[in-house]
Write a structure and sequence with these properties.
Blueprint: E1 2-3, H1 5-12, H2 16-23, H3 27-34, H4 42-51, H5 56-59, E2 60-61
Helix pairs in contact: 2-3
Domain HTH cro/C1-type: 5-59
Keywords: DNA-binding
Protein name: Helix-turn-helix transcriptional regulator
Length: 70
Amino acid sequence: MKNRLKVLRASHSWTQADLAAQVGISRQAVISIEKYKYTPSLALAFRIARVFNCSIEQVFIFEEGVSNHD
């Protein structure tokens, strides 16, 4: 699953640590999500979308047939 975390963070002038604090995760988790090494749970995806005041679909882009391991 692709995402727009880096772009959205930049539009808010937030660091990875800032975003992590906003959603209650570690900075390392933000890094992993941004590098597509970790797909967040649905609950975490909602929290991330909420801090950006966006829908999940505006943050995360689902690609049919693509797994986290591709």
